[in-house]
């Protein structure tokens, strides 16, 4: 797994790290039980503070995606992928609810809305 961070993106670096690790777990690039790079190693590779990496790892641990084991490292949790999928579904449902409310207010028919969703989905491939 190769992480890339940008200091000019406007998004905090620890958030960039978290997003990329989440994506790697969800895609299967990082498997359950697999170790993440050590705090110092990743900080050195990315040329950032160890505290920044620590914050990212700790927040991922709080979310149940990884587990910090004292003296051994940080590992992907076995239920991390399922937990992330459930959270993604919840977040997507919330977005759909907001989108449907806006579409109804703009008098956009359901078929048109579905076509818009399909086009957006295909553009992401």
Automatic annotation (TrEMBL):
Residues 11-79 form the HTH gntR-type domain. GO terms for molecular function: DNA binding; DNA-binding transcription factor activity. Gene3D superfamilies: Winged helix-like DNA-binding domain superfamily/Winged helix DNA-binding domain. PROSITE patterns: HTH_GNTR. SMART domains: HTH_GNTR (SM00345). Transmembrane segments: none annotated. It holds the Pfam family GntR. Keywords: DNA-binding, Transcription, Transcription regulation. This is GntR family transcriptional regulator. It comes from Bifidobacterium pullorum.
């Amino acid at each position: 797994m190769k992480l890339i961070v940008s200091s000019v993106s406007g998004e905090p670096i620890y958030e960039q790290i978290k997003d990329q690790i989440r994506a790697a777990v969800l895609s299967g690039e990082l498997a359950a039980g697999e170790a993440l790079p050590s705090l110092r190693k990743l900080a050195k590779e990315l040329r950032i503070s160890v505290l920044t990496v620590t914050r990212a790892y700790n927040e991922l641990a709080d979310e149940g995606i990884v587990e910090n084991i004292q003296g051994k490292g940080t590992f992907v949790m076995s239920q991390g992928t399922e937990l992330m999928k459930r959270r993604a579904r919840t977040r997507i449902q919330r977005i759909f609810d907001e989108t449907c409310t806006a579409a109804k207010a703009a008098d956009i028919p359901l078929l048109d809305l579905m076509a818009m969703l399909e086009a957006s989905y295909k553009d992401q491939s």
